[in-house]
Design a protein that fits this description.
By secondary structure, the chain is mostly beta strands. Helices cover about 10% and strands about 35% of the residues.
Length: about 150
């Protein structure tokens, strides 16, 4: 006796993720302050080393999430970065611990400053300069980060 032909099952259509800029893959979203941010993820040393280097633009609701295994004082610089950025440091309890603005390399070279979190953090999110202020992102507020 022949085996029955499998019938297709109905599946829910997933909500499409936002179209990323410059062909980059959006892998996470964050609700912080009054904003929803769509983020590329840098969660290994190689991805973190490259970060947003060479980008000529970044969508207003786009950014990059840097993920670390443990909380620590995080250090960033703008080597090869062309656009000014806000950096939001978030601890392991999903609380913003620091927000700073970083200037692009061509504005600070040859002495590239190092930006360090004022408290240990497990995550850092880089967004366009001014986004943190526009969204009301400041130390002490909660951040919700999720995979998409």
């Amino acid at each position: 006796m022949p085996s029955p032909t499998p019938q297709p099952t109905a599946t829910a259509t997933p909500t499409p993720a936002p179209t990323p800029a410059l062909g980059s893959e959006i892998q996470a979203a964050a609700s912080i302050g009054s904003c929803e941010l769509f983020l590329e993820v840098a969660d290994d040393p190689e991805e973190r080393a490259v970060g947003l280097m060479g980008r000529e633009s970044l969508g207003r609701d786009r950014g990059m999430l840097f993920v670390y295994a443990d909380e620590q004082v995080l250090s960033f610089w703008m080597k090869g970065t062309l656009i000014p950025l806000d950096i939001i440091f978030i601890n392991g309890d999903s609380v913003v611990v620091d927000v700073q603005t970083m200037r692009p390399e061509h504005e600070t070279a040859p002495n590239l400053p190092i930006t360090r979190s004022v408290a240990p953090a497990r995550y850092a999110i880089e967004v366009n300069e001014g986004v943190a202020d526009e969204c009301g992102i400041e130390p002490g507020i909660a951040a919700e980060i999720r995979s998409i």
